[in-house]
Write a structure and sequence with these properties.
With 464 residues, the chain is of the alpha/beta class. Among the domains are: 33 residues, no CATH class; 241 residues, Rossmann fold. The protein is built from 21 helices and 11 strands. A 7-stranded mixed β-sheet has the order 1-2-10-7-8-9-11, sandwiched between helices. It has a 4-stranded parallel β-sheet with strand order 5-4-3-6, with helices on both faces.
């Protein structure tokens, strides 16, 4: 490979610990973050850490959650695209580029997505010299399509809404057959997605609880890692937190409107970015402890409360939450972030967790991708006022119900696992032997063990 044709970025270790980067590169990246967000040096800003080398997170106030457990939200707003999924996009591209499977200016990268992975691919792919194409359901928010174009990529709108993943796969098959230049980078299948979150997100979560313990908050352990299942990237961080703390419960969230794992359910939903109607190949479902379902409308109405000026004033004056915290929450949460918060509250209530317990969750993106959705809500329900604010605060956040909960018994985990067959063996060409191999915990340990070798090869490719 002629190195001059390639753009490279950080190793897994550097994404976890940006202080280990070449200081001059880190300085240029931080400057570009403010001055030129399209500069490829921003690849070195793919990290959960801020300029002070601390993880970006917020500890939610009990005044909002109504529970005494510590609900900690790691937020992705400060990543180069405004979402942590850019880390998965980058890691997938690097894995394929190191293997020689993709070459800049020769191949067109195709990113099947329901949102943030595709936006990440649009940003990373074009920064690394690739023509990039994103496949996205037609009913996603207007801002998603605008951002893809801004980053220099194209998109194809596929039929349906958030849960119409099969239609995306059908278009992938069509594109692959039409032209060998089209290289499909499927986040639901490719382990670069899993590895980024297992190592970078998972270890960042461990640092957060250690930092809080130094402040006298919590017990320094992770009691639960709670996120929507989506492409099964982010939930891989739970595999890491459970390795460190075996008592940690991994809780996957789904929409009530499309409860695939919960009861083989189907349907359309609007928690944008979390997929559904299939089980991703990279999801280690046999390591998951529970599935909980969240209502998509409560997620949207909850986001409206947290971001509308009338709603935020209610939280300050009516709920007694301090202004700085309210301002922060209004900036870092999107629809799936509210879903994750509600799932974390449900987890705390169901398992009876208290002030020593730390529950980690994630805000994938922020309100900037959902202004159009909020406008649609106002057309449907009316503008926010104090009465609506009080009702939503009480009914959505303070009264989280303990319904739609399914624990991971032996039989349930077996059913969750078996659902992979119908997508991956019947439709996507995997073998039964490949599927059955995932039953062995060693399968996942072998994938995790690839990280040091990938880092070694990446350093060699960079020349340092």
């Amino acid at each position: 490979m002629a190195e001059t044709n390639y753009v490279w970025g950080p190793t897994f270790e550097e994404m976890l610990h940006p202080a280990k980067m070449d200081p001059s590169v880190r300085e240029r990246a931080l400057r570009a973050q403010r001055e030129d967000p399209l500069d490829p040096v921003n690849l070195y800003n793919i990290t959960w850490k801020n300029s002070e080398d601390r993880v970006n997170y917020i500890l939610l106030p009990e005044g909002l959650t109504g529970v005494s457990a510590n609900i900690i939200v790691m937020y992705g707003k400060e990543f180069p695209t405004g979402s942590h999924k850019v880390g998965a996009s980058y890691s997938v591209i690097v894995e394929k580029q190191l293997a020689g499977e993709i070459v800049p200016r020769r191949d067109r990268l195709v990113f099947p997505s329901t949102g943030n992975y595709g936006i990440g691919g649009a940003w990373v792919g074009t920064r690394m010299g690739y023509e990039s194409l994103v496949l996205l359901p037609e009913l996603m928010s207007r801002e998603r399509f605008e951002q893809i174009r801004y980053y220099g990529a194209d998109y194809i709108k596929t039929p349906g809404c958030e849960s119409n993943v099969k239609e995306i796969y059908d278009k992938c098959k069509e594109l692959r057959q039409a032209n060998p230049r089209n290289k499909i980078l499927n986040q639901f299948e490719v382990f670069g997605n899993y590895l980024f979150h297992y190592y970078v997100t998972g270890n960042s979560a461990l640092e957060v609880v250690e930092e809080l313990a130094r402040k006298g908050i919590g017990n320094g352990r992770v009691s639960a890692f709670v996120v929507a299942t989506g492409s099964a990237g982010t939930i891989a961080a739970g595999d890491r937190t459970k390795q460190r703390f075996p008592e940690c419960r991994i809780v996957g969230l789904e929409p009530i409107q499309c409860p695939t794992l919960f009861n083989n359910g189907y349907g359309g939903h609007d928690i944008q970015g979390i997929g559904d109607k299939h089980v991703p190949w990279i999801h280690n479902v046999l390591n998951m402890d529970a599935v909980m379902c969240i209502d998509d409308m409560e997620c949207k109405l909850g986001l409206h409360l947290l971001t509308d000026p009338v709603g935020t004033e209610f939280l300050i004056e009516g709920a007694g939450i301090d202004r700085d915290t309210v301002d922060k929450m209004s900036q870092i949460l999107g629809i799936s972030g509210v879903c994750n918060v509600l799932g974390a509250i449900k987890t705390a209530k169901f398992y009876g967790m208290g002030p020593r317990d730390n529950i980690i969750t994630v805000a994938t993106d922020s309100i900037d991708r959902y202004r159009s959705v909020m406008a649609e809500l106002e057309e449907q329900f009316g503008e926010m006022d104090k009465v609506r604010a009080a009702l939503r605060f009480g009914s959505i956040f303070q009264a989280v119900k303990l319904d739609w909960i399914q624990e991971g018994t032996v039989n349930q985990r077996e059913r969750w696992f078996n659902l992979k067959y119908y997508t991956w063996v019947e439709q996507q060409g995997k073998t039964v032997e490949e599927l059955d191999a995932q039953r062995d915990p060693e399968y996942w340990l072998e994938k995790q063990a690839l990280i040091p070798e990938i880092d070694r090869r990446l350093k060699a490719a960079r020349g340092r």
